[in-house]
Amino acid sequence: MIDKLTYSERQSASFILVAVAVVGLLMAAFGNSNQLGVHGVIVMIFAAALLYPVLSAIYAPEPVEDREASYYDDPIKVGIVLAMAWAIFGMFMGVWVAAQLAWPNLAFDAAWSTFGRLRPTHTSGIIFGFGGNALIATSFHVVQRTSRARLAGQVSPWFVLFGYNLFCVLAVSGYFIGVTQSKEYAEAEWYADLWLVVVWVTYFILYLRTLARRKEPHIYVANWYFMAFILVVAMLHIVNNLAIPIAWSSAKSYTIWPGVQDAMVQWWYGHNAVAFFLTAGFLGMLYYYLPVRAQRPIFSYRLSILSFWGIVFFYMWAGSHHLHYTALPHWVQTLGMTFSVMLLVPSWASAGNALLTLNGAWDRVRSDATLRFMMAAAVFYGLSTFEGSFLAIRPVNALSHYTDWTVGHVHAGALGWVALITFGSIYTLVPTLWKRERMYSAALIEWHFWLAIAGTLIYIFAMWNSGIIQGLMWRTYTGENTLAYSFVDSLVAMYPYYIARAFGGLLFLIGAAIGCYNIWMTVKAVPSTVPATPDAPETAAAVPGE
Amino acid sequence: MEVKEQDPVTGRETTGHEWNGIKELDTPVPRGILLFLIVTHIWAVAWWFFAPTWPLGTTYTKGLLGIDQRTTVEERVVEGQQARQDWMARIESEPYDQILADENLMQIVRSSGRQLFGDNCAACHGRDARGRANYPDLTDGDWIWGSGPEAIEQTMRVGVNTEHPESRIGQMPAFGRDGMLERDQVRAVAAYVYSLTHPEFSTPENVERIEAGQQVFAETCSACHGETGEGSAEAGAPNLTDNYWLYGGDLDTIIATVHGGRQGHMPTWDERLTNAEIRMLSLYVHDLGNRQP
């Protein structure tokens, strides 16, 4: 992969890595033996591990071919591998914390393995590690193909990919040693957050510059969603993470937002992380890989426009529904609730547009598990967006809030929508990228599909039951106007559902492991034939008169 | 450049755009979606009229219903308090004997006390109040600090070995570790205590050890546990002649107790629960112990 870079590009890569290592050294020196120091050492190791292959090949022959005549796929391949590695890690942590809820002794009496520390390693590992890497990889793929142009940079795609993974490593390793700013889905501390800003802005510029080089008159819908994802996540990340470190030598910082404003900013961030990271980005995936796999045109361009603008506009207002019946003023709650309900139609329009695109290809949905992954993802997307709008209604939320119903809702989205669309996209993408005719085994994709579906259904049914029982127990009064159940009573009632949930998660993990094996075997297989369809950007020479 | 085509499956025209083989149909937005969009918007706008919604500088639109969650919750809390007031006041002020004699009131204690016990006491004593190793069983009718709701109330208020000025102090010294008794004496006195509840242990080969232990007991232990070993609620010294054991009644555990001592801890609830709640829990716990044969 280094051989595709010119000498000066290898030099700039080395320069960046040395600079990162120096920052790590400074962190280690200033942090001394505290958590910042530990992270300084991790940064140095990370940079050194990447510097080694670059320096060993720095005087290797330069590429002779015209790089502009081919798409830049190396960073995408690495991104797919990283996404799958994070998937296994994150899902394993998920099964572990789920099991801890049923059998608390599985924390083994250590500090690093308590529920409070492991739980964010699961959420960050899945959302940022698995989801983020999958989004970066597929966005690089989609933007090149739909623009018929190569990525606008040789080093910057690597910088985005590895820089982002450094952020993920800092975040997740921090939780084990007790580093957190106690904001859900934004637990990473100030230095990791600052680093992510640098990486993300690079990502945004790279994406814009690539789009600017496009050889198509129009920008395809998938790119609208990827652009919304990159732009809004930058905005959310910066505003929610505004914080002041207690010292430059400390990992600890305090947010600049006071009291209920902090809660509001956090859930404006939190809900839009769901909207623009876990929805918009993955809709970008859906809009490319679903029609490609189904070989059908998108059902309605007009519906795409309606749902895109509906989604990006309404989601922005919905965050306050996470704070119903709290210190947040009533009027903010009404706004959040009403916008959440208005959001339902654009969301369903997206799901419907995806499903109606399959008209004329339903026989393939039956026979092709890869396409079925994407079909099921669209169904779960519709299901969880309906559930989300429903739970945002205040009286409904009075029952569901703080219960497992919320957890079930999130996983209907995370397992059923995000993970399924990702697996469907990856199974479509891997043979294309590695120039194979097809995946190693169609039967293993079937196994993965049914394990994932069974795991998801067991999980969400367990959490629906558990959550509704919890909510009802907490609000049941005796004839004397006192609570009928203690909190412990509700925990006892949860026990069977917690076991079922851990089991559902385990099935999902096994499916993902099968997926990894299948991808590995596909990559290992010797290519039989050169693909018949040309897969290259349009160069200036090929388009006369441009 | 843009070539519109007819899709053979749906009969619709494409928009003429194409990206790497992906095309789009020019299908109009289905009427159902537009209708649904209108319905959700009407629902939302109606809410804006009825409930507080839009900020206006330093104030906000109050809504036609005049509701606000803060006043709603305050009203509900007052309503609940009023509904509980009658029986709560009685539990708080009437003498225990009078309450115990009133079967209706005791029913309330049993149903409402259970939830209170679950939220405050079950973490140590268990949901069924049967305790576990090192945490006393409250259902067995055996009371270290004395029986009856008054004694239970006192234990709850001041706790055991707490910083409360009137805390109950239950200190079993570490006789072995702190060198007050020799190793042999510890083993002997443990054997004696064990034999109190296990007569079959007094076999000829153990008799000598047990008698030596009895001697040590009379000199060292009887101050708190009494000459016969029946204990003292005053000192929080448990009865050693019955079969209720807080830390375990096998010989090894008794040796460990005499060697290392025991200083249990029960928190004080004076500041955490209201008067009525403490009295209700005292009755509830007393009642649990009484229900045992």
Automatic annotation (TrEMBL), chain A:
CDD domains named among the record's database cross-references = cbb3_Oxidase_I
Q: Which reaction does it catalyse?
A: 4 Fe(II)-[cytochrome c] + O2 + 8 H(+)(in) = 4 Fe(III)-[cytochrome c] + 2 H2O + 4 H(+)(out)
Q: What is its EC number?
A: 7.1.1.9
Answer yes or no on keyword Ion transport.
no
Which residues are involved in binding Cu cation?
A: H271, H321, H322
Gene Ontology terms: biological process = aerobic respiration; electron transport coupled proton transport; respiratory electron transport chain
Give the range the annotation lists for the signal sequence.
Answer: none
Question: Binding of heme b 1; low-spin: at which residues?
Answer: H122, H411
Judging by the UniProt lineage, the source's domain of life is Bacteria
Alphabetically ordered keywords of this record: Cell membrane, Copper, Electron transport, Heme, Iron, Membrane, Metal-binding, Respiratory chain, Translocase, Transmembrane, Transmembrane helix, Transport
Localization per Swiss-Prot or TrEMBL: Cell membrane
Q: What is this protein called?
A: cytochrome-c oxidase
Q: Which organism is it from?
A: Nitratireductor aestuarii
Instruction: Tell me the lineage of the source organism.
Output: Bacteria, Pseudomonadati, Pseudomonadota, Alphaproteobacteria, Hyphomicrobiales
From TrEMBL, chain B:
Question: Matching Pfam families, A to Z?
Answer: Cytochrome_CBB3 (PF13442), FixP_N (PF14715)
What are the UniProt keywords, alphabetically?
A: Cell inner membrane, Cell membrane, Electron transport, Heme, Hydrogen ion transport, Ion transport, Iron, Membrane, Metal-binding, Oxidoreductase, Repeat, Respiratory chain, Transmembrane, Transmembrane helix, Transport
Q: Does the keyword Transmembrane apply?
A: yes
Gene Ontology CC: plasma membrane
Cofactor names? heme c
**One biological process GO term for this chain?**
proton transmembrane transport
Domain (Cytochrome c): residue spans on this chain: 108-197, 208-289
* Entry's Gene Ontology molecular function annotations: electron transfer activity; heme binding; iron ion binding; oxidoreductase activity
Transmembrane region positions? 32-50
User: What residues bind heme c 1, as annotated?
Assistant: C121, C124, H125, M266
Q: Which PROSITE patterns match?
A: CYTC
Q: Can you say where in the cell this protein is located?
A: Cell inner membrane
Quote the record's cofactor note: Binds 2 heme C groups per subunit.
Identify the domain of life.
Answer: Bacteria
Question: Which InterPro entries does this entry report, sorted A to Z?
Answer: CcoP_N, CcoP_N_sf, Cyt_c-like_dom, Cyt_c-like_dom_sf, Cyt_C_IC, Cyt_c_oxidase_cbb3_su3, Cytochrome_c_Oxidase_Subunit
Is Protease included in the keywords of this UniProt record? no
Q: In which pathway does it act?
A: Energy metabolism; oxidative phosphorylation
Under NCBIfam families, the record lists: ccoP
The task this protein performs is described as:
C-type cytochrome. Part of the cbb3-type cytochrome c oxidase complex. FixP subunit is required for transferring electrons from donor cytochrome c via its heme groups to FixO subunit. From there, electrons are shuttled to the catalytic binuclear center of FixN subunit where oxygen reduction takes place. The complex also functions as a proton pump.
Q: Which family does it belong to?
A: Belongs to the CcoP / FixP family.
Q: What is this protein called?
A: Cbb3-type cytochrome c oxidase subunit
| UniProt organism field | Nitratireductor aestuarii
